[in-house]
Amino acid sequence: MAFTHVPGKNVGDIKLYALSTCPWCKKAKRLFDDLGVEYSYTDVDLLQGEERAQAIAAVRKWNPSGNFPTVVLDNAKCIVGFREDELRAALGQK
After folding, report:
1. Structural domains of the chain, count
2. What is the mean pLDDT of residues 48-60?
3. Which of 42, 73, 79, 86 has the fewest Cβ atoms within 10 Å of its own Cβ atom?
C-alpha cells in the first residue's frame, strides 16, 4: 500500500494510519512535524480497492476496533488515538 514519506530525524520506523478528514489524525501529523521526526502515513479513506482493504487489515491487526489515528512504531508497538504524552514518550521526546 502507498505511504507518503515525511523526512526528518530518524527515531525508528513510524507508520501512521490516518483519515484525511480526522482532526486527531491531523494533530498526530502536526506533532510529528513539530518534533521534526521522520514518518510515513497513509490516509486510508483516500485509498481504493485492494490497497484500501490491505490498509484496513493492517490497522485491525494492531487495533481490532479500527480507530484512527493508529500509529505503529518499529512494527512492535501501537498507539491508538492522539495521545500526545504517550507518543512523545515513545519517540524519546518530552
Report:
1. 1
2. 95
3. 86
